[in-house]
Predict the structure.
Amino acid sequence: MENTTEMELSLGPRGIGVAMTRNEDARFLAGKGEYLADLNIPGTQEVAFLRSPVAHGIIRDIDIPPEYRSQVFLLSDLGDINPVRAVLNHPDFRASDFPALADGRVRYVGECIAMCVAPTRAEAEDIVQQISVDIEDLPIVTDAVAAAEGLTPVIHEGWPDNRVFVSKPSSGDMARAMAEAEIVIERELNMNRQCVVSLEGRGVLAYQDRRLDELVIYSSTQQPHMIRMVLAGLINVPEHRMRVVAPDVGGGFGVKNNLQSEEIAIAALAKVVPFPVRWVEDRREHLVASAQAREHYYKMKLFARRDGTLLGIDARVVVNAGAYSIWPWTSAMECNMVVGIMPGPYKMLAYRGHGTTVVTNKPPHGPYRGVGRPGACFALERMMDELAREVGISQDEIRRMNMVTPDEMPYLTIAGKLYDSGDFPLSVSKARDLIDPEKIRHLKRSNGQHGVYHGIGWASYTEQTAHGTNEWLSRNLSEVFGYEAATARFTPDGKLILEVAIQNHGQGLETTLAQVAATELGVDPRDVVVRHGDTAVSPYGLGTFASRSMVMAGGAVGRACEELGKKVKRIGAHFLQAHPEQVELRNNHVCVGSRSVPFSEVTRAAFRHAQDLPPGEEPGLQISLTYQPESGTGAFSYATHAVHVSVDIHTGLVTLHDYVVVHDCGTIVNPMIVEGQIQGGLAQGIGNALYEESPYDTEGQPLASTFLDYLLPGFPEVPTARIGHIESPSPFTRYGVKGMGEGGAIGAPAAIVNGINDALAELGVEINETPVSPKRLLKALQRSVEKTA
Amino acid sequence: MKPPPLVYERAESVSDAVAILAEMEWGARVIAGGQSLVPMLNLRLAPLIKLVDISRIEDLRAFSDDGGRVVYGACLRHGEFEDGAVPDCANGMMQRVASRIAYRAIRNRGTIGGSVALADPSADWITVLIALGAIFTVAGPTGRREIHADEMFLGPYTTALGEHDILCSISLPKLSAEGRTGFYKVIRKAGEYPMTTASVVRDPATGLNAVVLGAVNRPQLRLRRSSAILAASTRWSDDVGAALIDAYGEDLAAAGRDGDPYERKLCETTVLRAVQQALR
């Protein structure tokens, strides 16, 4: 028996709460990740999609040169294949079919029509160029607001108009709120359409495994189990004859969190050709043909007392969800999220939302980091700033005074969300201390010199995470994502493997899940293998999205390791001649007092020498368990962002000088990873606020199809946020953990645009549209000059 | 985004390159750094059959300084100007401009001659070369000839170079020790193409005074009245600024380009800030 104390000191604790570097970085930083395009499977042929060049039309003819006919695949060449029909379980939801390849009609530029197969992608693209498609034009719809008013030609046969769904959440006494209102603020705002732009694009590779008689599909996806489950029904392959693998995935952000047309098409193609086939998305395809996000139009009314007390909000929202409803989220997801979360961290007498989702001839909407909330936060927080200005209260105080307070937790909001824990006003105070408004006020005295104006922008929000069964049921989706699963198993040499159904595509889950195991089992988290992203290696689970994996998979790993630990203790105690309740698991050892037995002894007995086990103990050391949080209503993180901006009124360019985030995501598993998530989300929020936009002309043609026109922030445009932590453990989750993957992106558009408005308020300029491009800003400045002239 | 099939030939000399180009009436194009051409090929926007690689031709990578002018080979790379590997004819302006073209990875390959030949209206070099009064030496099927900067750039992506011409070198006058310059561009983010550029040269000793504006999707514009204000001023002041705004307005009106208030404002800022640098 060894004395473990010294070893423990040298290793240090690496359980929950420790800022350890990431295990997976050993391969990523060495450039040794294995992404979809890196797969080297002999005989693989490459696929290029022929995509629709027009936004709406009926395909009259597809002319394929005879010499290429065997290399070109249309929908009719794919055999047994069904269209996607993604619906809400609600009688008012209008359903439509989305075929993997066009079925006689196209409804957006970039829609897949045919697959061209060749030994290389370049040759496949050569074939694409040889095919001519005769499309009879149909009227094109791009204007969402007109579509919401029923003023546009109908896109889906059998529908009376282009409205998919109207969500009308309403609660509280709106008549009283309006009657008591001394201040009414009304604004129109909009957040323009965006692409997602994961670092690695999408991609799919599929082939028949003859030995196992299964269809193997590699996809750059966030949810391999879900993809297998839904594909089974669409291409008629039973789930036990199909394996879906997500290799290393270079970022998802939501765009890989839905069933993609290309996944269906490539999987179906692999059933009819005798070789592996692969499609790797290029940047142009990503910018014009993958799921997009945002494009919200708001008409907001805010009712308040003269003392700044918020009484009510009326939010009318239109979201342009593009041509089709994608599985499983449906086209109504974005808009329903906007009107569902609108009241934010504030108390009020009444809330009335009216959210209309419309179809148009643009690419379909999918989830993107934040889903709906960046827009809702932008709209509401702009209104809060205008209220502050109107009543002469500071931007931070107006927020603090209207927020839900810690003593009111858990708090059921006017919109029916159950806030579990936290101190919202404290996030504002701490952000105020960090950003130092006095310093910026001093700078503002020199506003106008060299055309530069300084401002400070605020945004507070709540971030619903790890939504459980109740929340998903309330959204009427076809799937209920209320739990996760994990297998924990030791190997005979005493090491631990975790097999999980979530997918790690940048979140550091190969490290944080190992930290959870370290907490439960006293193993060294550096030496834990975390396997994920493969239907063949883990029990069924839902995937990584909606800021759920740390709570859900962390909980499942925690439960599994706790149970496994009981058996380890029994076996170890047997060796130590102690009672199982007396022993502890520390540093890969079962310990009692100063005596210990290494796990390798325990596993030797469990796997190889069952004769050494305690009487009645079963051989083996592995367990599979699921976890669902105690409440299915979600764990709410929250934050306040504060940013110091300056605007050059002669160029319309905005500079971010300082960015502060004070957040609370409950128990922090790994502070370094949490800060990285905030910083990464912030980068995307800055893109949303200032750079990223996917405009379309009235013919439905995309105007940003390369990075020349679709601007992303780079390192020089993204300041390193100064981050303040508050830790209010959630009462609903194991360890008190809350999700936190999206918040950085939620707050930034609101905070930055508020900062710009604060800077330019003295010039009478107001801007309520993202991204704030130099053109929009200079035009707003010119309008205000004309107004005062 | 993969290129269509292409024939690739590497030219060993300028005459070799001219001969290869002349073999085909249409569809052959010179490639040097390839930083604009390759993306266009990948997007299948440039319907070409043959690429003639001139990047290894020694003559095109040479430079010389005769005391009055510096001659730069067309295949010198932006990065070589940035690193000071070639003489700077304009008291540091060449280095300053080069160091902010796109990203270093692009500057490692992109060439000054390639920028000229493509004539992207937002390319950084072009207003500089017009302001400095560059003289371009061009080789074609009928021999060599010179083209002055004012005759070179005919509009966006349009130059006086013929289908079978190769740009060989760029000759620029050396500024006197008192010569001052300014270069300003408005970019939305680091490394992007500018929305507007302006180059300013003021060198009383050599009589060189120029203000040249470049704005996206427009031909470059020599601002003659603005240039006169520059010549008459020695140091920046509010009065100079006011006079310049008037002159700039007249220049724009004379060119029929005073329509869009947004573009006008952005260009005004660009010109003013470039002139301000030269009068510091």
